[in-house]
Here is the input.
Amino acid sequence: MTTTAPEFLDVDGTPIAVRHAAGAAPGIVWLGGYKSDMLGTKAEALAAWSAENGRAFLRHDYSGHGESGGAFADGTISRWLRQSLAVFSQFTGGPQILVGSSMGAWIALRMVQELNRAGERRVAGLVLIAPAPDFTAELVEPALTGAQRRDLAEKGYFEEPSDYSDQPYIYTRALIEDGRANLVMTGPIDTHCPVHVLQGMADEAVPHSHALKLVGLLPADDVTLSLVPDGDHRLSRPQDLDLLTRALEAITERAG
Here is the structure.
């Protein structure tokens, strides 16, 4: 378990908590999920794997998450993307493998788009765990109840109980509207790198059909899909972590 204190990077006036360890390239960059933090089970497992294998490892908390500043309700995909790109720029050099969990997979895919657009093709591989790109438009909006739509219109947000936290999930109108400006599943997704998708078939938060739809938009010759029949959204059991590290080893070998 990590006990060292993070360092902080100011991004648009918000202190973003960062932990990084030096090592060989390609380095590993962790991107967590919605309302998760960088000290979760999967991130800690990757920190240990990176240390054992001499790989650079970088992780951070989005604003309103974990040890970072800012209010969770002020967060949007665009804001968390800017923070992730700033951390990536400040703390990495050379090729990197992005490991994105749930919403972190959306952030990872948007990072690839933005980095490629800037001519900075340093993403050597992607490992996407229970990926939830476009979740606001694909999963949240279609399931809105009348009461939730009223809350969005009148209060600017609605709450939903969480299976993973004592605190409810908060979905804001700003998050949903901004999500529409960051959609990646509107056509073919050219990542210019190998991708490995890990998806539990017992995932009640992000159905495996969503992962299948994503894979259908990725270049087939560069994509591996691993379905875990009894896996849930977290994919944090010992056997899930073993699958994750083996996927990372394979991607790392391909990336050099």
